[in-house]
Amino acid sequence: MRNMQVHLSNVLATPKHAGGLRLNGVMKTSSYDRPIISIITVVFNAGTQLENTIKSVINQVYDNIEFIIIDGASTDNTLEIIKKYENNIDYWESVSDAGIYDAMNKGWALANINSKVLFLGAGDTIETLPIELIINNKFSESILYGDVDIEQGVFRSVVNWKLHIGNTIHHQALLVPKSLHVNPPFNIEYPVYADYDFNVKLYKNKHCFKYSKQFKSFAYQGGISSRSSHIEMVVISKKNFGLSWSALSLAYHLFLKIKELWSILLHRLCF
């Protein structure tokens, strides 16, 4: 489908603003006892937040990680931060794109075919990785997921019927084997919740999801996911599960919105 295609010319040809270990001939590989993890960060004008994310990745104990940064031609100090850590980044590029999911598609196309892929936004950090499950070949084709610390507390990821009405998995604690979907997976028709659409497709295709309490990340608030786009999630629910589930999705998100507005009103009345 046209809207799901990556601009392959940008992926296959090295952009003018690019660097990293790969361009110096260093290519990481995956093996039976040391499977590779591809961590992809997409960023645009978020240099202040990006450094924490980079440090979080390069300080991991598990060392067979390829780190890819896709920058959308930032005009702040993002490029300066990237170049500061260039010797710890496998590949980076700074090229204008069609939005966050176009950038994420580029990163997916660049990831090692044998890797498990994890997306971190600028400001997101890894707290702990599920190393035992990663190196256990029994789970090589499993999608690993965990919990995510957010400002309001802990987001407890679940994979069950609730996925029919909303996104119950945060990408900051989600490792997906690229082999399950070799082509770039994000439909850029959805500017905010294309990751929810992809999660639903994985779920509908009955791929194995494995939860690990050892897998935990922190999600920086203020990115694209902070936008209120309940209708988009309802549309995705309808497309994948039908009218009945989308009606439940709409009712659920209306309830959440009313609850949020009521909380704001009570706060104002109290102060």
Architecture overview:
- The protein has two domains: 2-227, Spore Coat Polysaccharide Biosynthesis Protein SpsA, Chain A (Alpha-Beta Complex), CATH 3.90.550; 228-271.
- It is built from eight helices and ten strands.
- The protein has helices at residues 8-12, 47-58, 78-84, 100-110, 131-135, 194-204, 230-241, 243-270; strands at 18-19, 37-43, 65-71, 91-94, 116-121, 125-128, 143-150, 153-155, 174-177, 209-218.
- Strands 1, 2, 3, 4, 5, 6, 7, 8, 9 and 10 form a ten-stranded mixed β-sheet that branches.
- Helix 2 runs parallel beside helix 3, helix 6 (194-204) runs parallel beside helix 7 and helix 7 (230-241) packs antiparallel against helix 8.
- The longest helix has 28 residues, at 243-270.
- The N and C termini lie far apart (52 Å).
Structural class: alpha/beta
Order of helix and strand elements from N to C terminus: HEEHEHEHEEHEEEHEHH
* pLDDT < 50 stretches: 1-12
> How many domains would you count in the coordinates?
2
N-to-C CA distance: 52 Å
SS summary, helix count: 8
**What is the CATH architecture descriptor of the largest domain?**
Alpha-Beta Complex
CATH topology of the largest domain: Spore Coat Polysaccharide Biosynthesis Protein SpsA, Chain A
Number of strands: 10
Kindly state the mean pLDDT as a whole number? 90
Shape: globular
The whole-angstrom Rg is 19 Å
* Helicity range: 25-40%
Say which CATH homologous superfamily of the largest domain is assigned.
Spore Coat Polysaccharide Biosynthesis Protein SpsA, Chain A
In percent terms, what proportion of residues is strand?
A: 15-25%
Largest beta-sheet details: 10 strands, mixed
Q: For the record, what CATH class of the largest domain applies? A: Alpha Beta
